[in-house]
Amino acid sequence: MAIPHAQPIEPVSVFPLGERLATAQTTTLVKTDALELIRLVLPAGKKIDQHEVPGEITLQCLEGKVHFRGETSECELTAGQLI
User: Fold this and answer.
1) CA-to-CA distance for 83 and 81, rounded, in angstroms?
2) If you average pLDDT over every residue of the chain, what do you get?
3) Which one, of 24, 19, 29, lies nearest residue 58 by Cα?
4) Domain extent listing, the chain
């Protein structure tokens, strides 16, 4: 059975999860040949191992903060910021 994803012109909520964050899981919101939109839930103190993806990425912090390290630079994002 395929995982359901949003369809074209179907609204997707990206509001902060607040109290639901503690039990939330990472989910793919949209997946097409040209775009994959993932809501990544990363608990405080957790790290993701270095990895590569084909093409460009956009990272938006919805709540909390995240430290991002790219090939040539790094930054810290807080809620409402994106790179």
Assistant:
1) 7
2) 87
3) 29
4) 58-83
